[in-house]
Amino acid sequence: MTFLLDSSTPERHSLFEDAFALFVGTALMALAVMLLQASGLITGQIAGLSLLTSYATGQSFGLVFFLLNLPFYLLAFLRMGLRFTVKTFCAVALLTLFTEILPGQMRLEMLSPLAGALLAGVVSGAGLLVLFRHGASLGGVGIAALYLQDRFGIKAGWVQLGFDTGVFLLAFWLFPAVTVLYSLAGAAVVNVVIAMNHRRDRYIAS
């Protein structure tokens, strides 16, 4: 027996559902950042650039991440609308807050690079899926990736993976090659999760 969903009038998420999803998605992403830091790795997208900048300058990840995302809000507003922009701004602000608070509540002493990469990739993928399904992102490349998928059908995961390749090429200047390769494996897990699961031909999001 086949069950069909009527996609002509999708039910919109409630305010509480959106707020809870932002909390869950950003909490997962903050945990992923801790996993990466505990294993001495980086990630892709704006979060990856933020980690590179944080390692290089000693500034906190949360502050750098928030500042680097500011220019992308105009693109979000013009291409994705006010609702998406507000949700994305809230998600970025929450992640900034969580990355400042969470290290004081838990401590990850050490992870092997392989375990850190794979676990962070799975956790990041789950966190981003939660945010995407509720019409939000973590800014930066995520905005462009979602726009290109909705407008042209180019999968968001592949767009992000292309950008990540550039981030990791830059990382070769700051980190040993083996560290960058482990980090790239984690980023690949994230983007495969997104490409496989954030698909309008299979799933309906409101």
Q: Overview of this structure, please?
A:
It is found in: Cell membrane. Its main location: membrane. It is a multi-pass membrane protein. The chain crosses the membrane at residues 20-43, 55-78, 114-147, 167-194. The protein is mainly alpha-helical and 206 residues long. It has one domain (15-197). It is built from 9 helices and no strands. The protein has helices at 15-38, 45-57, 61-69, 72-80, 82-101, 113-133, 141-152, 156-171, 177-197. It starts with 14 loop residues before the first helix and ends in a 9-residue tail after the last helix. Mean pLDDT is 81; it is low at 1-9.
How much strand? under 5%
Basic shape: globular
End-to-end gap: 26 Å
Low-pLDDT windows of residues = 1-9
Structural class: mainly alpha
* Tally of separate domains: 1
In helices, the fraction of residues equals: over 70%
Discrete helix count: 9
Q: What Rg do the Cα atoms give? A: 17 Å
Largest sheet: none
